[in-house]
Amino acid sequence: MAFLRLHSLRWVNSQHVGASTLRIIAGLVWAVEAFVWLQTGGAAWMTFAVAGPVLGFYLLSRWLTGHWGSPVVPAAAVLAMLSGPTGSTTGSLYSVPAGLMAVIGSFLLFGLGTLAALTKHRWNRTG
Question: Is residue 20 a contact partner of residue 42, using CB atoms and an 8 Å limit?
């Protein structure tokens, strides 16, 4: 998956039909794979050893070409890196009271709704 992510830095979305979709699907598969890997006893350093160079090459590509590539590439690398801390956090969520989780979830949804309302002019184009 990391090789596909690095290779996708050279793709031009307008020239390749489905390039952005493939980037998103590969990023999700990579993040899920890293999460499953760490939950089944994999070493966290191996995830960082793969995702770190992907982030490095993404920044190097930016420096050499002068333009940012697809933001899905570094997002997937960060998700893969965060799969270890996320996995250890989910185990401790069982001891948190349900009322506190409801309040946290409400604030999270309120924030997402506010973000969607503030950026509506960017993603809701009519006419």
Answer: no
Burial of residue 108, with CB atoms counted within 10 A of its CB: 0-12 exposed, 13-18 middle, 19 or more buried: exposed
Residue 100 lies in domain: 96-127
Q: Distance (Å, rounded) from C-alpha 2 to C-alpha 49?
A: 11
Give pLDDT tens digits for 48-64. 888 888 888 888 888 88
pLDDT tens digit sequence for 71-101:
888 888 888 888 877 666 666 777 888 899 8
Nearest of 115, 21, 3, 122 to residue 70 by alpha carbon: 21
**C-alpha to C-alpha distances, 49 to 17, 34, 81, 87, 90, nearest whole angstrom:** 31, 12, 9, 18, 23
24 and 80 inside one domain: yes
Residues 27 and 51 in one domain: yes
What pTM was computed for the model? 0.59
Same domain, 43 and 22: yes
72 and 100 housed in the same domain: no
My answer on whether 108 and 54 are in the same domain is: no
